Amino acid sequence: MADTLDRSASSLLGDLVSQVTELFRKEIMLLRAELGEKATQAVTACGLIVAAVVLALTALNV
Question: What residues does each domain of the chain span?
């Protein structure tokens, strides 16, 4: 009976380690995706700012 409990506990511990590892990998993948999205938004925002500056300078005849 003790062997069954020991195997069960070690099996549970193994499952815990596997699940924590999988969670960590998924969180890293999510972080990469979010950073990529933020970078795209930042580039778009910079482009719009440059366009606005060009239009403002053109309007002011500078």
Answer: 1-62
